[in-house]
Amino acid sequence: MTTLAHHTPAPPTQAALLKAHTKAQVLEQLRIPVAVISSTVFPTLALLFFVIPQGMVTSNPITALTAIAQLALFGVMSSFLFNYGIGIAEERANPWNSYLRTLPAGPVPPTIARALTAMMFAFFALIPVLILGGLMTSAPEAFTSGDLSWGRIPLSVVVWLFCGLPFLALGLFIGYLCTSKVAIAVTQVVFFPMAFAGGMMLPPIMFPDWLNTFSLFLPSRAARDIAVQVLSGQGMHASSVLCLVAWTVVLGALALWANRRDQGRRFR
Q: Which among 14-18, 61-65, 113-117 has the top mean pLDDT?
């Protein structure tokens, strides 16, 4: 008599789940090329139309680097907030994604996969900003003169992506609380005032005193100051790192609470 051995397949590892979720989310983003292209070229167009024509900015290497860093972070913030704030709200109405949330994989693999996907597409948005800034401003002179190290450029790209983490958490918070139509309005209402008050459209040196003081408490201002400091060596306030870490923790806790609230309401 032959005994047949029954082998129960081993459950997938967290790494395998993370890889599968990341691949699925990248493909999902690529299915809407217009959205990918628009989020990629948006900061480049802002640099082309609002910075390049200003000779006083482009002729000074440090002010040019400051403008490039501000718009690079603007692109990261835009990618994270809109992809998560609106994307999560739309997925909650999708039956397939509702089914995925009932699986025993848990929220960690899809959440990390979202962060990796958002960082990847935000990275693509940074490349044309750096190329255009290098070709059409005097920014490279700060490096060719030896005043700044070339290593600041790749380091800046990494720092800019990590400076987007509080906005990623804010996008999750909005997405898990709002319907898709409400999320579009809320994200726009939050994004533009925060970007302006954070000094991404105008340098904080042009702010009145009350706005400058207020902006120091915002995550966008802290992220902007760190982004500018890493690339140009100037502009960071003493409280910037502490402010960004505090906002990342607070918004991360709110995003986790919103996720559990939505999970409890829909799958209890």
A: 61-65
Q: Give the Cβ contact number of residue 103 at 10 Å.
A: 9
**Model confidence pLDDT, tens digit, residues 146-169:** 889 999 999 999 999 999 999 989
pLDDT digits (tens, 9 = 90+) for 198-226: 988 888 888 999 999 999 999 999 999 99
CA–CA dist 109, 115 (Å, integer): 10
pTM (predicted TM-score)? 0.83
**Secondary structure of 26-88 in the HEC alphabet?**
HHHHHCCHHHHHHHHHHHHHHHHHHHCCCHHHHCCHHHHHHHHHHHHHHHHHHHHHHHHHHHH
Q: Residue 52: which of 69, 64, 39 has the closest Cα?
A: 64
Q: Compute the Cα dihedral for 248, 252, 253, 254 and give only its sign.
A: positive
**Contact present, 73 and 223 (Cβ < 8 Å):** yes
Contact predicate 108/194, CB 8 Å? no
The single-letter DSSP state of residue 1 is: -
Residue 79 in contact with residue 165, Cβ under 8 Å? no
- Span 40-77, pLDDT tens digits: 788 888 888 888 888 888 899 999 999 999 999 988 88
Helices 180-197 and 219-232, interaxial angle, to 10°? 50
Q: Where are the beta strands (DSSP E) in the chain?
A: none
Q: Report the 10 Å Cβ neighbour count for 40.
A: 20
**Backbone region of residue 121 per phi and psi (left: phi > 0; alpha: psi in -120 to 50; beta: other values):** alpha
